[in-house]
Design goal:
alpha+beta; single chain; 700 residues; six-stranded mixed β-sheet
C-alpha cells in the first residue's frame, strides 16, 4: 500500500479530516493538516485505535442497558405493589360475598383474561409503506406526534409532523416503541376483507404470445368469429386486446398481446396477470427472437405454457423443425417426454382449434381456478387510453367480486367512479363478473397498465390515491434502487437471496452459448445462476424491461448499447455490464458469488503541467522543470506523459520541489521540479497529466 493523504485516508475510514488529524496527534504522529501524508503503519495504528474505541463504547452501552433494565424492573415492582394490594383486597371481598351467598368460584375467567393478555402482547407487528409521515407513524404506533418528533431529534433528524420518513428510519423508530415492521408497497396497502366468502370456479385468463406475423390475432379471430386483424395498422396488433369466449359451457378469457418487440413492457404485464400462456409459432417460420422472449417471460412468471404450432396448412410448413427448435430452448413437449402440450392448428381453416381449447380447459381444470363472486370488485388495468369522445377509458380484468355501475374505485395513483361499462363488443353493461375484461369510464387520470383496480368507498379511494400521488412524487425525486452485481453479492452474503438471474447478449451465437453454459456451471449448492434470456445482437429496451421484471442483470459480450437503452436502464434501475473477454465476465460473477467482488476504479484528472526544462542530477536522474497549467500537481499521485495526444509513459511522482523546498503539492500558475518513477522518456514540451483513482459507483 502507498502513502496517502489525510483527506484520502479519512474517506476510507468514514471520518472527517479533522477527526483523523486529531486521532493521529493523539497517537503522537506529527501531522499539520488534511494534506499531510499518512503511511500504512500510521493507518494501521489508527484502525486499531478505532476498533478499541468501538469495543469500549459497546461495553459501556451494555452496562448502561443493564442499569436501565434494572431500574425499569425496580420501578415496575414499585408500581405493581399498590395494584397487587388493591387486587388482593378486592378478591377477599369477593370471596367473603360468595361464601355468604353460596356462589361457586368461576374458575375459567382468569385463564381467558390471561390468554387475551398474551394475544395483545403478540400483536406487535405493523405494516409500513416505503414512505410514511410522522403523523401517520404516530397513529400506527398509538403514540403522540410530539413524542415521535422528540425521538427523531434524539436520532439527529429535524422533522415536522408532515415530514415523510423512509422505511429504514420509520422501522428503527417503531422498534424503539416495541413494534416489529413489515414493508409493503403503497399499492398493497388496501386491506383484504377478513370475512370468509364462498369461492366459485372462474374462467382461466390466457395470454397469447409469439413472434410478429405468426398468426396470434388471426387465431383468436377464428375462435371469436370476428375480424380484428383487418382493423389493425399493417396487420399487427397495436395494443393489448381482451375478449371472452364460451366453449362447452365454459368461459375462457384471452389477452392478445402485441407481437412487435416495441411493446415488450405490455407483454410482461400480461404475463403477470395470466393463468396460462399460449405461445403461437408459425410452422413455416420456426422459433424467432420474440418467440424466445415470450418463452423467457412465461418461465420467469412461472406460468403454465401451451404451444400452438400455426400455419400447418401451408406448403412450407415444417412442424418437426419447430419442435426441435423449442427443445433447443429447453421447452420440452409432451410427445417427447416433456410437460408442455403442443397442438397443431390452422388459423385459416380452423384445424385443431377444438383440440387447442380442450387443452386450455384441461390445464385450467388442473389448476382449480377459484375466486369469490361476492364482495367489492378487484382487478388489473390491462389497457388505458384517452378517447376523443368518451374521455379516459381503461380496460379492467376483474379477478374478484362484481363490478357495478356507480362503484367508487382506486387504481394506482388515480381514482374515480364507474360512469359506464362496455363489453368487448362495445355494448353497455350494468355489471362485470369474474375473469371478464370490461371497458370502464370514470377515471380522474389515465392509469398505468398493470395497476391494481380496487372498489372502495369514495372518501377512502380519494385518500389512498392522494397518498400514492404524494409518495410517487417523492419516489421520483429519489434515485432508483439499482440492481447491481455488487448489491446481489451483498444479498448473497446476508443470505437474502439464493439465485442470480442473468440476461446475456453477444455478437455471435457461439459466444452467447459458450457464456450461458459457463455461467450455469458456476452454480453452487448455496447459489444458483439462472440465464433468464440470451440472444444475439445489441442490448435493446426489451432486454432492459425483461431484466426489470425478472430482477436480473444484463451481461453483454461485444454488444452495443444505444443511448435510449442506457436511459431506460437508468430509469428502471438495471445494471448493464459489457465485456470484451468472456473469462473476465465469468471471473466477476464468480467473485460475486463468493463475496469477493472488488469495486471498479476510474481515473479522475486533477491537474496538468507542461515540461519546460530538463535537469540531469547525479545519483538521482532526470528531473522535469514544469509549469502547472491547470489544477494541481500532487506528490505520489499517478501521472501520464502525453506527447502529441499520445501517451508515451506512465508512472507516479516520487519527488516534488518548489524553490529548493520539498512540497506535497503545487497549484496552477506556479513552477516546480518533478521526479518520476519508472519514466525516463520525456522531452521539453510534453504534458504531465496528474490524476487520482476514484472508486466508481456501479452505474448503468
Amino acid at each position: 500500500m502507498n502513502d496517502r493523504r489525510v483527506y484520502d485516508a479519512a474517506k476510507e475510514l468514514n471520518l472527517s479530516s479533522e477527526a483523523l488529524v486529531h486521532l493521529l496527534r493523539e497517537l503522537d504522529f506529527k501531522v499539520r493538516g488534511y494534506m499531510s501524508v499518512v503511511t500504512p503503519e500510521m493507518l494501521k495504528k489508527v484502525k486499531k485505535k478505532l476498533e478499541e474505541d468501538k469495543r469500549r463504547i459497546k461495553e459501556k452501552d451494555r452496562e448502561k442497558e443493564k442499569l436501565r433494565r434494572g431500574k425499569k424492573r425496580k420501578v415496575e415492582r414499585r408500581l405493581r405493589k399498590p395494584e397487587e394490594k388493591k387486587r388482593a383486597a378486592i378478591k377477599v371481598k369477593e370471596t367473603l360475598a360468595k361464601i355468604k351467598t353460596g356462589e361457586q368460584k368461576p374458575k375459567k375467567r382468569e385463564k381467558v383474561e390471561r390468554v387475551e393478555t398474551k394475544l395483545e402482547k403478540e400483536i406487535r407487528k405493523i405494516q409500513l409503506p416505503e414512505l410514511v409521515s410522522v403523523e401517520e407513524l404516530a397513529k400506527l404506533l398509538s403514540a403522540s406526534s410530539l413524542s415521535l418528533i422528540a425521538k427523531c431529534l434524539e436520532l439527529g433528524l429535524m422533522v415536522t409532523i408532515n415530514r415523510r420518513l423512509d422505511y429504514e428510519t420509520a422501522s428503527m423508530i417503531a422498534s424503539e416503541y416495541g413494534h416489529d415492521t413489515e414493508l409493503i408497497s403503497y399499492y398493497e396497502e388496501v386491506a383484504e376483507g377478513k370475512e370468509e366468502v364462498e369461492e366459485i370456479e372462474r374462467a382461466p385468463v390466457v395470454t397469447v404470445m409469439g413472434h410478429v406475423d405468426h398468426g396470434k390475432t388471426t387465431l383468436l379471430d377464428y375462435i371469436r368469429k370476428t375480424n380484428v386483424i383487418a382493423k389493425e395498422k399493417g396487420g399487427i396488433t397495436q395494443h393489448i386486446g381482451a375478449s371472452i369466449i364460451t366453449y362447452k359451457d365454459k368461459k375462457i378469457t384471452f389477452l392478445d398481446t402485441p407481437g412487435h418487440e416495441a411493446f415488450t413492457a405490455m407483454r410482461a404485464r400480461g404475463a403477470q396477470i395470466t393463468d396460462i400462456i399460449l405461445i403461437v409459432v408459425a410452422a413455416d417460420d420456426g422459433v424467432m427472437p420474440q418467440t424466445v422472449e415470450a418463452i423467457d417471460h412465461a418461465r420467469d412468471a412461472n406460468v403454465p405454457i401451451i404451444v400452438a404450432i400455426n400455419k400447418i396448412d401451408l406448403e412450407g410448413a415444417r412442424p418437426d423443425m419447430v419442435k426441435q427448435q423449442l427443445a433447443q430452448h429447453n421447452l420440452l413437449l409432451e410427445e417427447i417426454g416433456g410437460d408442455v402440450p403442443a397442438v397443431m392448428v390452422s388459423a385459416k381453416t380452423g384445424v385443431g382449434i377444438d383440440d387447442l381449447l380442450d387443452s386450455l380447459l384441461l390445464i385450467a381444470e388442473m389448476k382449480e381456478l377459484k375466486a369469490p363472486l361476492k364482495g367489492n370488485a378487484r382487478g388489473y388495468i390491462i389497457e388505458a387510453r384517452l378517447d376523443r369522445y368518451k374521455g379516459i377509458v381503461a380496460t379492467v380484468l376483474i379477478t374478484k367480486g362484481q363490478l357495478k355501475k356507480g362503484n367508487s374505485f382506486v387504481a394506482g395513483t388515480t381514482y374515480g367512479k364507474v360512469r359506464a361499462m362496455y363489453d368487448e363488443f362495445n355494448k353497455v353493461i350494468e355489471e362485470a363478473y369474474l375473469s371478464m375484461p370490461v371497458m370502464v369510464l370514470g377515471f380522474e387520470h389515465i392509469p398505468k397498465v398493470g395497476d391494481r383496480f380496487v372498489v372502495l368507498e369514495d372518501r377512502t379511494a380519494r385518500e389512498i390515491a392522494r397518498k400514492r400521488q404524494l409518495a410517487e412524487r417523492e419516489m421520483v425525486a429519489r434515485p432508483p434502487v439499482v440492481r447491481t452485481l455488487q448489491s446481489i453479492q451483498d444479498k448473497i452474503q446476508k443470505g437474502e437471496t439464493k439465485e442470480l438471474k442473468v440476461i446475456i447478449k453477444g455478437d455471435v451465437g457461439g459466444s452467447v452459448e459458450a457464456m450461458s453454459d459457463s455461467l450455469r456451471e458456476l452454480s453452487t449448492e448455496e447459489t444458483k445462476i439462472t440465464v433468464v434470456h440470451s440472444g444475439v445482437g445489441d442490448i435493446t429496451e426489451s432486454d432492459v424491461l425483461l431484466a426489470s421484471v425478472s430482477d436480473s442483470i444484463i451481461v453483454g459480450y461485444h454488444a452495443g448499447i444505444p443511448s435510449s437503452v442506457k436511459m431506460t436502464a437508468k430509469r428502471e434501475g438495471v445494471e448493464i455490464r459489457v465485456y470484451d473477454v468472456i473469462y473476465k465476465a465469468l471471473e466477476d460473477i464468480k467473485l460475486a458469488l463468493v463475496g469477493l467482488l472488488e469495486p471498479t476504479y476510474e481515473e479522475k484528472l486533477i491537474g496538468e503541467a507542461e515540461i519546460r526544462q530538463i535537469f540531469n542530477i547525479p545519483k538521482i536522474g532526470k528531473i522535469a522543470g514544469c509549469y502547472v497549467k491547470d489544477g494541481k500537481v500532487v506528490k505520489n499521485a499517478p501521472v501520464k506523459i502525453v506527447r502529441d495526444s499520445d501517451v508515451v509513459g506512465e508512472g507516479k511522482i516520487i519527488s516534488l520541489r518548489r524553490t529548493k523546498k520539498t512540497v506535497n503539492e503545487v497549484s496552477a500558475g506556479f513552477e516546480c521540479g518533478i521526479g518520476f518513477e519508472e519514466i525516463d522518456d520525456f522531452v521539453v514540451g510534453d504534458i504531465v497529466q496528474v490524476y487520482e483513482m476514484v472508486e466508481k459507483k456501479r452505474e448503468v
